[in-house]
Amino acid sequence: METDQILKDIQAFQLVLKRFEDDTVEQEGRLSFLLKQKEKKSQEHEEATEKIIQVKNKINDLEHKLAGCDTAISNSSKVIESSTSQKEIEIAENKIKLSLEQKESLEEEILELLDREEKLIEDRANQATFISGISETIDEVKSEINTIIKSNDNEIKAMEEKIHGLTHELPTQVQNSFMIAHKKHGFQKSLSQLKGTLCGVCKREQTRDVVKEVQEGQFHLCSGCQRLLHK
Ligand SMILES: [Zn+2]
After folding, report:
1. N or C: which terminus of the chain has fewer CB atoms within 10 Å of its end residue's CB?
2. CATH 1.10.287.1490: does it fit domain 3-170?
3. Residues with CB under 5 A from ligand 1 (ion)
């Protein structure tokens, strides 16, 4: 086979190989997207659990204060019933008034917290449903992706073998130059056709010797872009 045909074939196989590699990356991306979503929701679920505990503690605390108000009211009531001192009765009446006001605001606060607790519990249940759903999806996708990646790996291996075989058919000097070009350009075009005295890709003017030898069928690396120049 002509050297330039071998090079073109290698490049074509490299492109096929890259498509399989890209597909594998894409499949892994699909999975990691799902895993991130699950992680995010799990974190929200944990946070909701913590918040529920905090709200419960706060409600407990307020209920204790509420009980304290009731005790204060009952004590003051006893003073009013038993005392004969107008002054003491007045003080007790004021205490009752204050305690009632306090109770009202505590009860309001407790109601708000109960609403909040209810909302948090509802959120947490939704999060749990989401997590269990996405976990199932992840398991399905994982097994699906494993099959695809395994098949991609086989294709990649086959391409690598073909490329390897073809590379060995190249003259050693071309082999080395092509490896340099391929290393630099990867799966982008690593070949460049000489156009007159210029590199077809980067337009760098080539020396007279290089132009002559390429026209005679030899291969040279372009001094500008390090692609393998061919006629
Ligand atoms: Zn060039």
Report:
1. N
2. yes
3. 199, 202, 204, 222, 224-225
Rounded to the nearest angstrom, the distance between the alpha carbon of 15 and the centre of ligand 1 is 20
Residue 1 has pLDDT above 80, yes or no: no
Return d(Cα 37, Cα 82) in angstroms, integer: 67
The answer for residues whose C-beta is within 8 angstroms of residue 80's C-beta and 6 or more apart is 89, 92, 93, 96
Q: Which residue has the tokens 């075989």?
A: 165
For the stretch 173-206, what's the b/e string if a residue is b when 16 or more beta carbons lie within 10 angstroms of its beta carbon? ebbebbeebbeebeeeebbbebeeebbbbeeeeb
Give the pLDDT confidence of 3-62 residue by residue, as tens digits.
Answer: 888 988 998 998 899 999 999 999 999 999 999 999 999 999 999 999 999 999 999 999
- CA–centroid distance, residue 198 to ligand 1 (Å): 8
The full set of domain ranges for the chain reads 3-170, 171-231
Cα 222 to averaged position of ligand 1 atoms, centre (Å): 5
Across the range 161-179, mean pLDDT stands at: 89
From the CB of residue 156, how many other CB atoms can be counted at a distance below 10 Å? 19
